[in-house]
Structure formats: structure tokens, C-alpha cells
From TrEMBL:
Its cofactor is FAD. Selectively catalyzes the oxidative deamination of acidic amino acids. Suppresses the level of D-aspartate in the brain, an amino acid that can act as an agonist for glutamate receptors. Protects the organism from the toxicity of D-amino acids. May also function in the intestine. InterPro entries: D-amino_acid_oxidase_CS, DAO, FAD-dep_OxRdtase. Belongs to the DAMOX/DASOX family. It is found in: Peroxisome matrix. It catalyses: D-aspartate + O2 + H2O = oxaloacetate + H2O2 + NH4(+); D-glutamate + O2 + H2O = 2-oxoglutarate + H2O2 + NH4(+). This is D-aspartate oxidase. It holds the Pfam family DAO. Its EC number is 1.4.3.1. One of its GO terms (cellular component) is peroxisomal matrix. D-dopa binds at residues 204, 259. The keyword rRNA processing does not apply. It comes from Leptobrachium leishanense. FAD binds at residue 164.
Length: 322
């Protein structure tokens, strides 16, 4: 979407094995709360988060909010022990961040410290199709296909933008990207209006438009996309401890997805060579547990990298194909 809007001189084709509702993003809670990447400078992560927040803030305030599935969500992040940082790097990007009062903490007898703020949430089942429509309205083309080698694209496209998430492990042979399986439950709990997240990241409750997402698990190097019924029980138990009104709640669906974890998001240009052939690639993958929180910031950077390559294209006087 960012490339097709910023670089109208290019024709853009999205090729993917799976589209919504069958992507990692469809499993995600879609809440904007960043997870820090160890090896990406914090100022850069903050900038990506701010760009993403500003983009979704505008959608949430527009007449398109309902169709796009984007809205504000307030809530509590609570900790069993004092966290290292009382004010995380993103505190002044979200709205109204403050520490919780003793009175508020009384709701969480097992926790000693808390933060409260308003952030944004994307209902992925609405947001992803809305983005796809926006892309097609810009003239973008969509093809459903698995790519076994990036060289399949050589000659057909001038630049390849690699956004394959965990697929990059096989497609690009990147050993740094690995799966962290996450399982969530969609439940019917319309009385809940605030999110509750344990700061350890292992228990969260995110009210959405049509349902509430309960999570979440983090199983490193587990490639299975099948939800585990025992884990469902654990999620319900943990979430009911945080929010006792969830005891006996009716479960609509269970889902699992693979977070494409990496020490840093890979956002860079690469020139690949094979048998005398040359292919320009822009990588944009490895968003781990923060794909929603950072997606517009990283997409804008990928767009700038593509823009830098355009003058090098033989066909730059006509239309570049991506
Ligand atoms: C349980 C859970 C909860 C989460 N909650 C949040 C949250 O609240 N907030 C947040 O910011 N993030 C959250 N995330 C993380 C977020 O979902 C991911 O960071 C994000 O979805 C990654 O997006 P992506 O487009 O890079 O990868 P994906 O969504 O996996 O998309 C990659 C696409 O590439 C395609 N592909 C891969 N390989 C190939 C190939 N060889 N050929 C063709 N196509 C290919 C796939 O079919 C897929 O469509 C959560 C994740 C999980 C699992
Ligand atoms: O941690 C959260 O609050 C949601 C999330 O990003 C994940 O499960 O990956």
C-alpha cells in the first residue's frame, strides 16, 4: 500500500501463498504495544511506532474506522514485580500514559505495579481486507502463489520486496528468523471494554469489535499451526485470574500463528547474483511480536529503499515493475 501510494510511477504486484484470513496477522490481537527488538536502535523503533500510530490515529478518527476495523483501546498493563523501566520507550506516543494509582491496582491483587494508557487496535479480519482493497484501488495486482526461489521473479519484475515473514527462513535461507508460536482464543465477553495485559507478555485480554482475544503463549521454534487444547485451558485459567468475570466464558474460536522473530527487523537492500543474472531485493521481514505496532513505519522505510533503486532500473523512463 505504501509503495503504490508513494511511487505511482511503479506497477506493484503482491504475490503470496496465503492471504487474509490465513496469515499470521489474522491470528494477532492487533494491538499497538511495541516489543523491543534487541538489535534495532531504539530511536528507530520509536520512529516506526510513531508513524504507525499516527497513520492509524487518522483512520480511527475518520468515517472509515468501522470498515477498516481500527479503533482506540484503553486499558491496564500490570506487573507482578517492578519492571526495569517504569516508562517504556513508547510512553509518549500512546495517549494519556500514566502509572496506575493504588486504587486501580486494588483490582489486581497479584500485581504490584501498573501502567494505564490508550492505544489503537486493528481488528485484523477487517483491517487486512480493507488494506487489500486500498491497494487494489491504487491499481495494485494480487496473485496467489508460493514462490520457491526469488529467481522465479527475475526478468518479470525490476525489484522484489521481500515481506515473507517466517517464510524468509526457507526462501532467503536466513537462519536468524525463527518461529515463536502464539495461541489465542476468541471469546464472547462484550462487557469487557478495557484491555488487561500482564507485563510479562504471557497473559492478555484484548476486547475487540466482535469478540475478545485472550492470550497468549510464546513457544520458541514450534512450527505447528494447530492450537493445543491443553494450552486453551491454560489461557482461560490465566486470563480468569486477571479478570475473574471470564470464568466459564464461551469460546468462539482458537487459533495459532508463528511470530517471525528476529533480533532486528531486516530492512535493507540486497543485490543478488546468479549465473550472471542480477536481482534487486528490498527485505522487510522479521517483525516478531510487533508487526501491527510497526507496520507503517517499516513499510515507509522499505518504500524509501525502493525509491533509491528506481534510477538504477533499465526501464526507469517508463514504469518500474515490483
Ligand atoms: C498470537 C499472536 C498475537 C499477536 N499479537 C500482536 C499484536 O497484538 N500486536 C502486534 O503488533 N503484533 C502481534 N503479533 C505479531 C504479528 O502478527 C506479526 O508480527 C505480523 O503478522 C507479521 O507480519 P508479516 O506480514 O511479516 O508476516 P505474515 O503475516 O506471516 O505474512 C507473510 C506472508 O508471506 C507469505 N509467504 C511466506 N513465504 C512465502 C513464499 N515462499 N511464497 C509466497 N508467499 C509466501 C505468507 O503466505 C504470508 O501471507 C501477534 C502474533 C501472534 C502469533
Ligand atoms: O504481547 C501482546 O500483547 C500481543 C502480542 O504482540 C503477541 O502476542 O505477540
Amino acid at each position: 500500500v505504501c509503495i503504490s501510494e508513494a511511487l505511482p510511477q511503479c506497477t506493484v504486484t503482491v504475490i503470496s501463498e496465503k492471504f487474509s484470513p490465513n496469515t499470521t496477522g489474522d491470528v494477532a490481537a492487533g494491538c499497538l504495544i511495541p516489543h523491543a527488538f534487541e538489535e534495532t536502535p531504539i530511536q528507530e523503533q520509536k520512529y516506526w511506532f510513531r508513524q504507525t500510530f499516527d497513520f492509524l490515529f487518522n483512520i480511527a478518527n475518520s468515517a472509515e474506522a468501522a470498515e477498516a476495523g481500527v479503533g482506540f483501546l484503553s486499558g491496564w498493563q500490570v506487573y507482578k514485580a517492578q519492571p526495569e523501566e517504569h516508562f517504556p520507550f513508547w510512553w509518549d506516543v500512546v495517549l494519556g500514559f500514566r502509572l496506575m494509582t493504588e486504587n486501580e491496582m486494588a483490582k489486581f491483587p497479584h500485581h504490584r505495579f501498573g501502567q494505564t494508557f490508550t492505544t489503537l487496535k486493528c481488528q485484523s479480519g477487517l483491517y487486512l481486507p480493507w488494506m487489500e482493497k486500498r491497494f487494489k484501488n491504487n491499481g495494485g495486482d494480487v496473485i496467489t502463489k508460493k514462490i520457491d526461489s526469488i529467481w522465479q521473479l527475475n526478468g518479470k519484475y525490476d525489484i522484489v520486496v521481500n515481506c515473507t515473514g517466517i517464510g524468509s527462513r526457507e526462501l532467503i535461507g536466513d537462519p536468524l528468523v525463527y518461529p515463536v508460536k502464539g495461541q489465542v482464543l476468541k471469546v464472547h465477553a462484550p462487557w469487557l471494554k478495557h484491555f488487561i495485559r500482564d507485563g510479562d507478555g504471557n497473559t492478555y485480554i484484548y476486547p475487540g469489535i466482535n469478540d475478545t482475544t485472550l492470550g497468549g503463549t510464546r513457544h520458541k521454534n514450534d512450527w505447528s499451526l494447530l492450537p493445543d487444547p491443553n494450552v486453551n485451558k491454560e489461557i482461560l485459567d490465566q486470563c480468569s485470574k486477571l479478570e475473574p468475570s471470564l470464568q466459564g466464558v464461551s469460546v468462539i474460536q482458537d487459533m495459532a500463528g508463528l511470530r517471525p522473530m528476529r533480533p532486528a527487523v531486516r530492512l535493507e537492500k540486497e543485490v543478488c547474483y546468479m549465473d550472471g543474472r542480477k536481482l534487486h531485493v528490498v527485505h522487510n521481514y522479521g517483525h516478531g511480536a510487533g508487526g501491527f505496532s510497526m507496520h507503517i513505519g517499516t513499510a515507509k522505510k522499505a518504500t524509501r529503499l525502493v525509491e533509491e533503486l528506481i534510477p538504477l532500473m533499465g526501464s526507469c523512463n517508463t514504469k518500474s515493475k515490483l
